[in-house]
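Exercise 7. Predict the joint structure of the components listed below.
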Amino acid sequence: MNCEIIAIGSELLTPFRSDTNSLFLTERLNKLGVQVAFKTIVGDRQQDLVDQVRIALNRADIVITMGGLGPTVDDLTREAVAEALGFRLKRDQAIVGALYARFAARRIQMTDNNSRQADVIDGAIILENPNGTAPGQWLDIVYNTHRKLVLLLPGPPHELKSLFDAQCLPRLTETLPKRHIATRTLKATMIGESVADARIAPIYNQYKDVETTILAHMGDIQLNLICGKPLIELAQARVDELAGRIEDELGDLIYSSQGESLEQIVLYYLEMRGATLATAESCTGGMMAQRLTSISGSSRSYLGGAVVYSNELKTAFAGVPTETLALYGAVSREVATALAEGIRQRSNASIGVGITGIAGPNGGTEEKPVGLVYIAVADDQQTEVVEKRFGGDRERIRQWSTQQALDLVRRRLM
Amino acid sequence: MNCEIIAIGSELLTPFRSDTNSLFLTERLNKLGVQVAFKTIVGDRQQDLVDQVRIALNRADIVITMGGLGPTVDDLTREAVAEALGFRLKRDQAIVGALYARFAARRIQMTDNNSRQADVIDGAIILENPNGTAPGQWLDIVYNTHRKLVLLLPGPPHELKSLFDAQCLPRLTETLPKRHIATRTLKATMIGESVADARIAPIYNQYKDVETTILAHMGDIQLNLICGKPLIELAQARVDELAGRIEDELGDLIYSSQGESLEQIVLYYLEMRGATLATAESCTGGMMAQRLTSISGSSRSYLGGAVVYSNELKTAFAGVPTETLALYGAVSREVATALAEGIRQRSNASIGVGITGIAGPNGGTEEKPVGLVYIAVADDQQTEVVEKRFGGDRERIRQWSTQQALDLVRRRLM
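Solution:
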């Protein structure tokens, strides 16, 4: 079974907005064994919409539209789908009544155009939308002798998601041929995408029944394994077997075998060991702190730290001796060490991290170029410092630096 | 003139990847007076591609494909476009030679499949790609009696962007009817999108020749004004006049009239006043520091600060008295004040900021619910504290809190 997703709205054809709803729908559909074969974005023009719905009906088993169900003149999806199918629209008085009640409850006068949201395509099942005024519609029809499902969904993400899960998932599960899908997500870090792929492709190529996707972003590699079988046990066994072989190959480059983020893993290890962490960041300017504290519950293991952009604050907050700064410069192995050890001591944390480097685009020299970063991790036994030369722009250098720092903490705790 | 952008690649039909190249292309095309009418994503299947290129040729003046130009069997764009047009492919020996030279320079053996990248559609101009192995192609053709431009571009963003700017922009400027486009971007903050729209819609609706787009993200409102006229002076005058009237209406809610970010504006004001800033963050966990230091040159005015997640660090790094913590709790007006004043004093900054709150999803009480945040700004004259109750999830509460804090600093410096 394949699907075409049509996102509707002229704002999605500007430089400022992109469709993200389709990623959510794709994830849900894949788990039901449905592949997304086409995604199309169309503006609020009726003829374009009618043509596109017909194109989609001719090439996909399931056609899902998103958006264009609101009350304004720009909202043309109902009319366009009805026209493409040659079906009529009828105003559903029960929906009109519910709309009036909804507005009355908020003591707002309902304008007439809202009634358009009660126009239902002949034969459609109405999909209630508790988070918005426009209901969705579900059509199970025969088009040119083929059975087709046509779903009209609202555009706002929170409306679409809850409506899809509550109303479409159960219907799709009932309607589609039974297929059981098992998935696993492995994550690795501090390895390039092509290097990772070269090492594991010979393995996953032996599992033609498992779909393997590799995604890389800022030093983070995500491997998604997905397999569909008539029995869930068979699918799970294949996915687990392949995951095990990939874990054997990549070893401790893999930090997560269940999809957790690196921040989550570091916090989990800290808690497991009863350890605490503090950070002193120069070039990453709080990004490591921000990443750790983005996780709820991080306060159990992450105490906090210092953002020490100026040399004075390196001394004041992390106790870096002024002589060390003068002798080696702010970007040096010695200052990274002093930052890690100083913040550890001043915060009474079990582990201290120090990061100093040149994030660019300015401030580099021949000896100390943009991208040079020193990262130190100190505990009560030892302080380890690594020197890295990251490529790319300021954002990338900062991201890779925090990724490396988190990975060093993970390895220290392993 | 209108355009269809076709993004090619099965990975773009997974839940994990979305097309972002098209936003870049749309921005460039709009400035040339070209509207994007359709965006389509197709997988690596030849017949789907051929069909889609034909659909696009029938409904758009300019058809741009992105991706599918590499050396592997999945890269089918050249073949598919040639088939859709009924044109032949010819291998260009000069490109083959350049590929061999490129591989030789890196001391890598070139595999045979790379030669496919030298296959050129009859009549196409070759678009050199200095950042990758696969060149683009430019076709200026007549299809069903209509003149059409067909552009084949590489998929990797850095290849596509530089190739488009270097090779396609000049050709498009020469080919397309002359039209001069003026743009302005205004930014406002701490106002809802619908409230902002309600206030300015009566103004921009009087300027039908200026396209006004409103985007809202995490407390940041961006207003894009764009106008095309035969003379650039006319276009600029209309855009500037509308921008001026919107600025009059929204007053100091507008923080930027040339598109700068709030971080940039705060740093600019700090530098202009010869002032320095330090931060002490609890619930935002370094996000404000990270936002400020994401700007190159921020070290001139931003000294750094403390991430004080634990109560101990609030005292150790920002000098918050333990009695204040005991008496009022960590999330209180008094602790925010002490954080701002303490960090200012310890860092010798002209301005200190303190943020404390409950980012959730856990940790809220009836008295102090999730989303309650206190933000204090201290200088040598006074300390101002605001209490906010932000809605949404952890990420949203943290984003809005830093947005509010940055805006308070901006207002203090105005």
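Discussion. Chain A is about 40% helix and 25% strand.
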